[in-house]
């Protein structure tokens, strides 16, 4: 059974040699690496502000007492409550901006996204290979059509995909359509 890996902020970390820039970088403090991991897990719509808000919310929850959690201020109007909530949005501190730039969060997140897309494409290809063993060609054509429709939807409806990712979706959907044509020729025989 694998033992959990502990992050030691006082130690130098080894240089990242496996070509995955989203792994912990040399001398990257554990605190900032853990924050970066939370940043990655927010997905394509991630933001530093969201990570900061999540951390502040977590700290506030730890500091609050049980009575504070259940206390509701009924004296405030809905507009005043909304205004109070807007005041909790705080600008990103300079230390965060510096760390984001120093530890290349944006570049590393892009590498993470590309790896996730490649893994997703590999998964689809493996599903296709599995499905090729299906005894019913009509079922396979039906599944391929579902995959093509999903890829079309991703390529056209998802604003957060880059041009390169959209082209990858289109390329994969083209190869799926060729598979559909091949399967249809088999069905006609």
Describe it.
- This protein has 189 residues and is mainly alpha-helical.
- The protein folds into 2 domains: 1-103, no CATH class; 108-188, no CATH class.
- The protein is 67% helix and 0% strand.
- The chain contains 8 helices and no strands.
- The protein has helices spanning 30-41, 48-63, 66-70, 78-87, 94-102, 105-132, 137-157, 163-188.
- Helix 7 (137-157) packs antiparallel against helix 8.
- The chain is elongated, with a radius of gyration of 24 Å.
- The chain starts with 29 loop residues before the first helix and ends with a helix.
- The mean pLDDT is 78.
Structural class: mainly alpha
How much is the radius of gyration in Å?
24 Å
Number of helical elements: 8
Query: What's the structural domain tally?
Result: 2
The amount of helix comes to 55-70%
Binned strand content: under 5%
Q: Please, what is the average pLDDT?
A: 78
Secondary-structure element order, as H and E?
HHHHHHHH
Total strand segments: 0
Shape, principal axes of CA atoms = elongated
Separation of termini? 53 Å
Q: Which stretches are poorly predicted, pLDDT < 50 over at least 5 residues?
A: none
> Sheet with the most strands?
none
């Amino acid at each position: 059974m694998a033992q959990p890996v502990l992050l030691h902020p006082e130690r130098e970390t080894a240089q990242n040699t496996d070509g995955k820039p989203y792994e912990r970088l040399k001398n990257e403090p554990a605190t900032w690496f853990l924050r970066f991991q939370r940043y990655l897990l927010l997905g394509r719509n991630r933001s530093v502000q969201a990570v900061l808000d999540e951390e502040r919310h977590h700290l506030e929850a730890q500091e609050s007492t049980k009575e504070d959690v259940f206390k509701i201020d009924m004296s405030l109007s809905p507009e005043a409550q909304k205004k109070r909530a807007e005041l909790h949005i705080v600008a990103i501190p300079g230390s965060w901006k510096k760390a984001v730039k120093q530890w290349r969060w944006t570049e590393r997140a892009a590498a993470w996204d590309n790896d996730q897309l490649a893994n997703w494409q590999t998964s689809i290809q493996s599903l296709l290979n599995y499905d090729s063993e299906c005894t019913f060609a009509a079922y396979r054509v039906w599944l391929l059509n579902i995959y093509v429709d999903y890829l079309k939807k991703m390529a056209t409806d998802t604003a957060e995909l880059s041009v390169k990712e959209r082209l990858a979706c289109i390329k994969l959907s083209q190869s799926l359509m060729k598979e559909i044509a091949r399967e249809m020729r088999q069905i006609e025989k």
